[in-house]
Amino acid sequence: IIYMTGVSPKHRGEGLGRIIVRAGMHYLVRNGARAIELTVDQENTPAERLYTSLGFKKQQETQWYERYL
Questions:
Q1: d(Cα 69, Cα 17) in Å, to the nearest integer?
Q2: pLDDT tens digits, one per residue of 14-39
Q3: CA–CA separation, 66 vs 64, rounded Å?
Q4: Is the CB of residue 36 less than 8 Å from the CB of residue 28?
Q5: Mean pLDDT of 33-51
Q6: Three-state DSSP string of 14-54
Q7: Residue 50 pLDDT > 90, yes or no?
Q8: Phi-psi region of 13 (alpha: psi -120 to 50; beta: other; left: phi over 0)
Q9: pLDDT at position 63
Q10: Which of 2, 9, 36, 65 has the smallest CB count inside 10 Å?
Q11: Per-residue pLDDT at 56
Q12: CB of 47 within 8 A of CB of 40?
């Protein structure tokens, strides 16, 4: 399971996210993974497009609640 990846805003659009995710995928496959799951914020459409382009398919949606104190 890949829980969180990210790229500094000043370096977005340079292909680094794709490099990071693909490196993680290759590592997991080399170490015997038969499936890979990841999470993404539903408002992060660039990340959703990236993951879809890498072959991931949406399986479910989860609600996240947060309260600032």
A1: 32
A2: 999 999 999 999 999 999 999 999 98
A3: 7
A4: yes
A5: 91
A6: CCHHHHHHHHHHHHHHHCCCCCCCECCCCCCHHHHHHHHHC
A7: yes
A8: left
A9: 84
A10: 65
A11: 96
A12: yes
Per-residue confidence at 42, pLDDT binned at 50, 70, 90?
confident
Average pLDDT over residues 55-69: 90
Q: How far is it, in rounded angstroms, from Cα 9 to Cα 24?
A: 21
The residue count for the chain: 69
User: Which residue's structure tokens are 């947060």?
Assistant: 66
What does the block give as tokens for 53? Answer: 């382009």
Would you call 6 exposed, middle or buried from its count of C-beta atoms within 10 A (0-12, 13-18, 19+)? exposed
Specify whether the CB–CB gap between 57 and 27 falls below 8 A. Answer: no
